[in-house]
Amino acid sequence: MNKNLSVYIDFLRTIAAMGVFLGHARGWMLPGMPVLIGAQASQCVAVFFVLSGFVIAFVTDGKEVHWQTYARARALRMYSVTLLALLVGIACDSIGYGIAPQLYTRLEDFKTSASFVDYFTYFTFTNEVWWNNRWIGSNQAFWSLGYEVPYYFLFGLAVFLKGWPRRIGLALACVAIGPRVVAYAPLWLFGVGTYSYIKQRERTGGAARRRFGGALIAASLILYCAVRFVLLRKVDNIFYANGLMPFARSWVHFHLIGIAIAMNIIGFHAFAGERELWPEWLTRAIRWIAGGSFTLYLVHFPLMMLSLALFPAIMHQPVLAVLDMVLVLVAAFALAELGERRKKQLQRLFPLTHSHL
Q1: pLDDT(221) > 70
Q2: What is the C-alpha to C-alpha distance for residues 152 and 189, in angstroms, rounded to an integer?
Q3: What is d(CA 188, CA 182) in angstroms, rounded to the nearest whole number?
Q4: Shortest CA distance to 154 belongs to which of 74, 265, 264?
Q5: What pLDDT is stored for residue 224 in this prediction?
Q6: For the chain, which terminal residue's Cβ has fewer other Cβ atoms within 10 angstroms, N or C?
Q7: How much is the average pLDDT of 51-63?
Q8: CB distance 191 to 164 below 8 Å
Q9: 42 to each of 13, 244, 253, 271, 340, how far by Cα in Å?
Q10: CA dist 288 → 281, 282, 291 (Å)
Q11: Which of 109, 45, 54, 28 is nearest to 250 (CA)?
Q12: Sign (positive/negative) of CA torsion 89, 95, 97, 100?
């Protein structure tokens, strides 16, 4: 993957994380925020799915060629953020609910205490298997990890097992995970397919390829807007779709969004080529924000709810709401320094013991 595409993947990750953040801000603090900016949260999660598949395909093509390396990398990536997010969520909810319980009752499925099953599914990322739909407190964004981590597991089985063990392992895993999560696997696999397509066409440049790339970028934006604002404008979230027809509409909607994102990435790769597109200062900024985007995704809503409990006037004063959004962002990226940006230190704490690795 060349530098242009690598930075662009981080740029899309940044946009997706901010899209989820702005979606919650619009729903709770700034209802006047334009739809184009503040009503893309569900679609941004679909972007995350595609990017996740793309990145996993990339790392297993080079750095993570043994199952031990792959498993450790996924575990460090998940637990470096989710453990911190759990503690932050519990602290924020305990304080916030004690101050303004009526605010938290507006949250669907909010519980003042978590059961053993809730914690078990949290730590094993089985919170969405079959018909489960669990999270702890106000950390509703955790639902998506109940899809992504099973996809990591399925992809690992497909890559690191061979023959009958792979077939049997995949079949048993799909049965354990359940039809709802398995049904959205193609969305994640769009990212894998995008990486494979780009790898087979590493040579970039040339006027014709740039024209092709520009046309594909334009087509991807048109498709996204058509699906989001015209064709399938109102659909349930991935984890909320109840009933066959609502589920089918959501499935089509989010997979079309995924196709648009895949087209966009392929188009950018063809258009950008090897030219120096990103100024160094912008590259550093994008990399830094993307490096804390997972933490932002998981902790922003508990922080936002706590701020609303402490200062309810935020919901009625746009200036205060904007200020609060800035403070939540600062707090989220500060928390990222404690976990997400400490992966190298965590790798040293949990070294691989296999000499062939």
Answers
A1: yes
A2: 11
A3: 10
A4: 74
A5: 93
A6: C
A7: 91
A8: no
A9: 14, 19, 11, 28, 23
A10: 11, 10, 5
A11: 45
A12: negative
Nearby residues of 105 by Cβ (< 8 Å), 6 or more positions away: none
As a whole number of angstroms, the distance between CA 252 and CA 233 comes to 12
Q: Which helix (H) or strand (E) holds 108?
A: none
Dihedral sign, CA of 111, 115, 117, 118?
Answer: positive
| Torsion sign (Cα): 90, 151, 192, 72 | positive
Share of the chain above pLDDT 90, in %: 52
Mean pLDDT, range 133-143, rounded to an integer: 85
Do residues 188 and 49 lie in contact, with contact meaning Cβ atoms separated by under 8 Å?
yes
Q: For 247-286, what is each residue's pLDDT tens digit?
A: 888 899 999 999 999 999 999 998 887 778 888 999 999 9
Measured CA to CA, the distance from residue 292 to residue 305 in angstroms comes to 20
Task: Indicate the average pLDDT of the chain.
Answer: 88
| CB-count exposure of residue 340 (10 Å: 0-12, 13-18, 19+) | buried
Backbone angles phi, psi at 318, to 5 degrees: -55, -35
pLDDT at residue 356, rounded to an integer? 40
Taking the alpha carbons at both ends of the chain, their separation in whole angstroms is 23
Tokens 């009503």 sit at which residue? Answer: 39
Asked if 321 and 283 touch (Cβ cutoff 8 Å), the reply is no
Whether 278 contacts 7, CB under 8 Å: yes
